[in-house]
Amino acid sequence: MFVWGDIDASEYDRFYCFNDQHYLTDKPTLPSGEYEFEVGYSFWPTTRGASVEFERYLDTGERVTGLIEWGEDSLGEASDIVYDWTITAYDQYDNTVFTWSGDELSHDFSFIASQTGIYRIEILKRDYLARCGRMTIEPEDWAQN
User: Fold this and answer.
1) Could you report the per-residue pLDDT of 71-103, keeping only the tens digit for each?
2) Phi, psi of 86 (to 5 degrees)
3) CB atoms within 10 A of CB 16
4) Model pTM?
């Protein structure tokens, strides 16, 4: 443990959230099957954009349903999406099993696992500024890469 003078670095792992109505002494817990994420700055069209990925083991025939919702950009503004963003689901062989692209601030999706294995969902945005989002998905227990 790092100690500098009378300051103990372990004191800085606490997390506090507050607004004009509530005060929390820890990170707020999300309902099961909800995941918040941030997609960083995009240098599109120089790059393919910025993305975040989630993965989970699925059994053959297992149905996945979800919703992606975009929140504020890195400047705290709830601005429209300028360039299309994409949701793509891949099977364990990197075959596309679902894809959608558009400029809506939210979009739902679903697919059925054709084979048992690890499936991956990629959320790709092309807008320059970083932006926060939320994914609600069934079945639960996805891991963010």
Assistant:
1) 866 666 667 888 999 999 999 999 999 999 999
2) -135, 140
3) 9
4) 0.77
